[in-house]
Design goal:
Length: 286
Protein backbone atom coordinates (compact mmCIF):
# COMPACT_ATOMS: atom_id res chain seq x y z
CA UNK A 1 0.00 0.00 0.00
CA UNK A 2 3.03 2.33 0.00
CA UNK A 3 2.16 3.23 -3.62
CA UNK A 4 -0.96 4.99 -2.33
CA UNK A 5 1.03 7.27 -0.02
CA UNK A 6 3.70 8.02 -2.63
CA UNK A 7 1.07 9.21 -5.08
CA UNK A 8 0.01 11.94 -2.63
CA UNK A 9 3.35 13.24 -1.37
CA UNK A 10 3.75 15.77 -4.18
CA UNK A 11 0.19 17.10 -3.99
CA UNK A 12 -0.13 20.90 -4.24
CA UNK A 13 -2.05 23.07 -1.77
CA UNK A 14 -5.70 22.44 -2.66
CA UNK A 15 -7.81 25.18 -4.25
CA UNK A 16 -11.52 25.21 -5.18
CA UNK A 17 -12.12 24.13 -8.77
CA UNK A 18 -14.60 22.36 -11.01
CA UNK A 19 -14.39 18.76 -12.23
CA UNK A 20 -16.44 16.99 -14.89
CA UNK A 21 -18.54 14.24 -13.30
CA UNK A 22 -19.22 11.37 -15.74
CA UNK A 23 -22.07 10.07 -13.58
CA UNK A 24 -24.09 13.31 -13.78
CA UNK A 25 -22.63 14.42 -17.12
CA UNK A 26 -21.96 17.86 -15.66
CA UNK A 27 -19.22 19.95 -14.05
CA UNK A 28 -19.35 20.02 -10.25
CA UNK A 29 -17.72 22.31 -7.71
CA UNK A 30 -14.95 20.65 -5.69
CA UNK A 31 -14.29 22.50 -2.45
CA UNK A 32 -11.03 22.58 -0.47
CA UNK A 33 -12.81 20.66 2.29
CA UNK A 34 -13.79 17.89 -0.12
CA UNK A 35 -10.20 17.64 -1.38
CA UNK A 36 -8.92 17.36 2.20
CA UNK A 37 -11.47 14.61 2.98
CA UNK A 38 -10.47 12.80 -0.17
CA UNK A 39 -6.80 12.90 0.84
CA UNK A 40 -7.59 11.73 4.39
CA UNK A 41 -9.65 8.79 3.17
CA UNK A 42 -7.08 8.00 0.48
CA UNK A 43 -4.33 7.78 3.11
CA UNK A 44 -6.60 5.62 5.29
CA UNK A 45 -6.62 3.06 2.48
CA UNK A 46 -2.95 2.36 3.25
CA UNK A 47 -3.55 1.40 6.91
CA UNK A 48 -4.79 -2.21 6.75
CA UNK A 49 -7.09 -4.40 4.68
CA UNK A 50 -10.36 -3.53 6.44
CA UNK A 51 -9.50 0.20 6.41
CA UNK A 52 -8.68 -0.15 2.72
CA UNK A 53 -12.11 -1.71 2.13
CA UNK A 54 -13.97 0.97 4.09
CA UNK A 55 -11.94 3.78 2.53
CA UNK A 56 -12.56 2.58 -1.04
CA UNK A 57 -16.27 2.22 -0.35
CA UNK A 58 -16.43 5.73 1.07
CA UNK A 59 -14.42 7.08 -1.88
CA UNK A 60 -17.04 5.63 -4.25
CA UNK A 61 -20.19 6.35 -2.22
CA UNK A 62 -19.29 9.97 -1.40
CA UNK A 63 -17.69 10.56 -4.81
CA UNK A 64 -14.54 11.82 -3.10
CA UNK A 65 -12.57 10.84 -6.21
CA UNK A 66 -13.69 14.17 -7.64
CA UNK A 67 -11.40 15.78 -5.07
CA UNK A 68 -8.46 14.35 -7.03
CA UNK A 69 -9.79 15.64 -10.33
CA UNK A 70 -10.92 12.17 -11.37
CA UNK A 71 -14.05 12.20 -13.51
CA UNK A 72 -15.21 8.75 -12.36
CA UNK A 73 -14.54 6.09 -9.76
CA UNK A 74 -13.00 3.93 -12.49
CA UNK A 75 -10.49 6.68 -13.28
CA UNK A 76 -9.64 6.93 -9.58
CA UNK A 77 -8.93 3.19 -9.47
CA UNK A 78 -6.78 3.33 -12.59
CA UNK A 79 -4.72 6.37 -11.55
CA UNK A 80 -4.63 6.24 -7.75
CA UNK A 81 -4.85 2.63 -6.60
CA UNK A 82 -2.21 -0.09 -6.97
CA UNK A 83 -4.69 -2.82 -7.88
CA UNK A 84 -7.36 -3.69 -10.44
CA UNK A 85 -10.98 -2.60 -10.72
CA UNK A 86 -12.09 -6.11 -9.77
CA UNK A 87 -10.02 -6.11 -6.58
CA UNK A 88 -11.34 -2.64 -5.70
CA UNK A 89 -14.90 -3.94 -5.89
CA UNK A 90 -13.89 -6.98 -3.87
CA UNK A 91 -12.75 -4.57 -1.18
CA UNK A 92 -16.14 -2.85 -1.35
CA UNK A 93 -17.80 -6.23 -0.85
CA UNK A 94 -15.66 -6.69 2.26
CA UNK A 95 -16.69 -3.28 3.60
CA UNK A 96 -20.39 -3.87 2.98
CA UNK A 97 -20.16 -7.19 4.81
CA UNK A 98 -18.17 -6.04 7.85
CA UNK A 99 -19.39 -2.46 8.51
CA UNK A 100 -22.66 -3.61 10.19
CA UNK A 101 -20.55 -5.63 12.66
CA UNK A 102 -18.13 -2.80 13.49
CA UNK A 103 -19.99 -0.54 15.93
CA UNK A 104 -16.78 1.31 16.86
CA UNK A 105 -16.28 2.77 13.38
CA UNK A 106 -16.36 6.55 13.46
CA UNK A 107 -19.27 7.72 11.31
CA UNK A 108 -17.29 10.83 10.33
CA UNK A 109 -13.93 9.33 9.47
CA UNK A 110 -14.67 5.63 8.99
CA UNK A 111 -11.59 4.73 11.01
CA UNK A 112 -11.47 1.27 12.55
CA UNK A 113 -10.40 1.51 16.19
CA UNK A 114 -8.64 -1.02 18.40
CA UNK A 115 -11.93 -2.56 19.57
CA UNK A 116 -12.02 -4.44 16.27
CA UNK A 117 -8.42 -5.59 16.48
CA UNK A 118 -9.21 -9.14 15.38
CA UNK A 119 -10.55 -7.72 12.10
CA UNK A 120 -7.79 -5.17 11.56
CA UNK A 121 -5.25 -7.99 11.83
CA UNK A 122 -6.80 -9.91 8.94
CA UNK A 123 -5.45 -9.52 5.43
CA UNK A 124 -7.35 -9.15 2.17
CA UNK A 125 -7.62 -12.88 1.41
CA UNK A 126 -9.15 -13.76 4.79
CA UNK A 127 -11.59 -10.86 4.75
CA UNK A 128 -12.70 -11.55 1.18
CA UNK A 129 -13.22 -15.26 1.92
CA UNK A 130 -15.37 -14.43 4.96
CA UNK A 131 -17.35 -11.77 3.08
CA UNK A 132 -18.55 -14.45 0.65
CA UNK A 133 -20.25 -16.54 3.34
CA UNK A 134 -24.08 -16.60 3.51
CA UNK A 135 -25.59 -14.18 6.03
CA UNK A 136 -26.49 -16.80 8.64
CA UNK A 137 -23.05 -18.44 8.60
CA UNK A 138 -21.22 -15.11 8.73
CA UNK A 139 -23.35 -13.85 11.64
CA UNK A 140 -22.65 -17.01 13.65
CA UNK A 141 -18.89 -16.58 13.20
CA UNK A 142 -19.08 -12.92 14.24
CA UNK A 143 -21.16 -13.84 17.31
CA UNK A 144 -18.94 -16.85 18.12
CA UNK A 145 -21.96 -19.17 18.14
CA UNK A 146 -20.80 -21.93 15.84
CA UNK A 147 -17.49 -23.32 17.05
CA UNK A 148 -15.21 -20.77 15.38
CA UNK A 149 -14.66 -17.05 16.08
CA UNK A 150 -13.12 -14.08 14.27
CA UNK A 151 -10.39 -13.94 16.93
CA UNK A 152 -9.42 -17.55 16.22
CA UNK A 153 -9.50 -17.04 12.46
CA UNK A 154 -7.37 -13.89 12.75
CA UNK A 155 -4.67 -15.83 14.65
CA UNK A 156 -4.49 -18.64 12.07
CA UNK A 157 -1.93 -18.75 9.31
CA UNK A 158 -3.10 -19.03 5.70
CA UNK A 159 -3.17 -22.83 5.64
CA UNK A 160 -4.97 -23.15 8.98
CA UNK A 161 -7.51 -20.52 7.96
CA UNK A 162 -8.28 -22.24 4.64
CA UNK A 163 -8.69 -25.59 6.41
CA UNK A 164 -10.96 -24.15 9.14
CA UNK A 165 -13.16 -22.33 6.63
CA UNK A 166 -13.46 -25.43 4.43
CA UNK A 167 -14.55 -27.54 7.42
CA UNK A 168 -17.04 -24.86 8.44
CA UNK A 169 -18.58 -24.77 4.95
CA UNK A 170 -18.78 -28.58 4.77
CA UNK A 171 -20.48 -28.67 8.14
CA UNK A 172 -23.18 -26.30 6.97
CA UNK A 173 -23.48 -28.04 3.61
CA UNK A 174 -24.16 -31.30 5.47
CA UNK A 175 -26.76 -29.56 7.63
CA UNK A 176 -28.49 -28.16 4.55
CA UNK A 177 -28.48 -31.59 2.93
CA UNK A 178 -30.11 -33.08 6.03
CA UNK A 179 -32.74 -30.36 6.03
CA UNK A 180 -33.45 -31.01 2.34
CA UNK A 181 -33.84 -34.73 3.06
CA UNK A 182 -36.21 -34.03 5.95
CA UNK A 183 -38.20 -31.66 3.77
CA UNK A 184 -38.46 -34.32 1.05
CA UNK A 185 -39.62 -36.88 3.62
CA UNK A 186 -42.28 -34.49 4.94
CA UNK A 187 -43.47 -33.82 1.40
CA UNK A 188 -43.79 -37.56 0.78
CA UNK A 189 -45.72 -38.03 4.01
CA UNK A 190 -47.90 -35.05 3.15
CA UNK A 191 -48.64 -36.58 -0.26
CA UNK A 192 -49.59 -39.89 1.35
CA UNK A 193 -51.79 -38.06 3.84
CA UNK A 194 -53.56 -36.22 1.02
CA UNK A 195 -54.19 -39.52 -0.74
CA UNK A 196 -55.63 -41.05 2.44
CA UNK A 197 -57.83 -38.02 3.03
CA UNK A 198 -59.04 -38.24 -0.56
CA UNK A 199 -59.88 -41.93 0.00
CA UNK A 200 -61.72 -41.04 3.21
CA UNK A 201 -63.67 -38.33 1.38
CA UNK A 202 -64.61 -40.82 -1.30
CA UNK A 203 -65.78 -43.35 1.29
CA UNK A 204 -67.88 -40.63 2.90
CA UNK A 205 -69.46 -39.80 -0.43
CA UNK A 206 -70.17 -43.50 -1.03
CA UNK A 207 -71.77 -43.72 2.41
CA UNK A 208 -73.93 -40.70 1.64
CA UNK A 209 -75.02 -42.30 -1.63
CA UNK A 210 -76.01 -45.52 0.16
CA UNK A 211 -77.87 -43.56 2.81
CA UNK A 212 -79.72 -41.58 0.15
CA UNK A 213 -80.64 -44.83 -1.59
CA UNK A 214 -81.61 -47.03 1.38
CA UNK A 215 -82.31 -44.48 4.10
CA UNK A 216 -80.65 -44.03 7.50
CA UNK A 217 -81.53 -47.59 8.49
CA UNK A 218 -80.00 -49.01 5.36
CA UNK A 219 -76.85 -50.20 7.14
CA UNK A 220 -76.69 -53.18 9.44
CA UNK A 221 -75.35 -52.70 12.97
CA UNK A 222 -72.22 -54.64 12.03
CA UNK A 223 -71.60 -52.44 9.00
CA UNK A 224 -71.94 -49.35 11.16
CA UNK A 225 -69.38 -50.69 13.63
CA UNK A 226 -66.94 -51.41 10.81
CA UNK A 227 -67.37 -47.93 9.37
CA UNK A 228 -66.84 -46.37 12.81
CA UNK A 229 -63.67 -48.42 13.36
CA UNK A 230 -62.34 -47.44 9.95
CA UNK A 231 -63.05 -43.76 10.68
CA UNK A 232 -61.28 -44.03 14.05
CA UNK A 233 -58.14 -45.52 12.44
CA UNK A 234 -58.06 -42.87 9.74
CA UNK A 235 -58.45 -40.13 12.33
CA UNK A 236 -55.57 -41.47 14.45
CA UNK A 237 -53.37 -41.86 11.38
CA UNK A 238 -54.10 -38.28 10.28
CA UNK A 239 -53.31 -37.01 13.77
CA UNK A 240 -49.95 -38.82 13.83
CA UNK A 241 -48.98 -37.50 10.40
CA UNK A 242 -49.77 -33.92 11.39
CA UNK A 243 -47.67 -34.05 14.54
CA UNK A 244 -44.80 -35.67 12.64
CA UNK A 245 -44.65 -32.51 10.54
CA UNK A 246 -43.12 -30.71 13.54
CA UNK A 247 -44.13 -27.45 11.88
CA UNK A 248 -42.12 -24.35 12.87
CA UNK A 249 -42.44 -20.62 12.18
CA UNK A 250 -39.34 -20.83 9.99
CA UNK A 251 -41.05 -23.27 7.58
CA UNK A 252 -42.25 -21.96 4.23
CA UNK A 253 -45.47 -19.97 4.05
CA UNK A 254 -46.75 -22.46 1.47
CA UNK A 255 -46.42 -25.39 3.88
CA UNK A 256 -47.98 -23.39 6.71
CA UNK A 257 -50.96 -22.55 4.48
CA UNK A 258 -51.45 -26.24 3.64
CA UNK A 259 -51.54 -27.09 7.34
CA UNK A 260 -53.99 -24.23 7.98
CA UNK A 261 -56.29 -25.57 5.24
CA UNK A 262 -56.05 -29.04 6.78
CA UNK A 263 -56.98 -27.70 10.24
CA UNK A 264 -59.94 -25.79 8.81
CA UNK A 265 -61.01 -28.97 7.06
CA UNK A 266 -61.20 -30.73 10.42
CA UNK A 267 -63.24 -27.84 11.80
CA UNK A 268 -65.70 -28.27 8.95
CA UNK A 269 -65.91 -32.01 9.57
CA UNK A 270 -66.57 -31.37 13.26
CA UNK A 271 -69.38 -28.94 12.45
CA UNK A 272 -70.99 -31.40 10.03
CA UNK A 273 -70.76 -34.23 12.54
CA UNK A 274 -72.37 -32.10 15.24
CA UNK A 275 -75.18 -31.25 12.85
CA UNK A 276 -75.78 -34.92 12.04
CA UNK A 277 -74.91 -36.54 15.37
CA UNK A 278 -75.37 -33.83 17.97
CA UNK A 279 -78.01 -35.95 19.63
CA UNK A 280 -75.37 -38.66 20.21
CA UNK A 281 -73.05 -36.22 21.98
CA UNK A 282 -75.87 -34.89 24.14
CA UNK A 283 -76.98 -38.41 25.05
CA UNK A 284 -73.43 -39.36 26.04
CA UNK A 285 -73.24 -36.38 28.39
CA UNK A 286 -76.38 -37.46 30.32
Amino acid sequence: MSDIIEKNEDAEEPKPHKVYDEETDDFVEVSVEMQKRANAVHLQIALNAISTAIGIKRMRDEKLYLGFGCQSFSEYIETRLPFTRRQAYNYIQIAERFIPFLPDISKDEYVVHSGAQHITEMGYNKLFALSGLPDDQFSKIVDGEDGVTLDELADMDTKEFASALTKYKKKHSKTLAQMDEQNKSLKDENRILKEKLAEADQRLEDAKALEAKFGKGGFSLESKRKILELARKEMLAAEQYVFQLNLEESDTIGLQKEVAIFIRRWDEVHKRMMMNYGFVVRAAEL
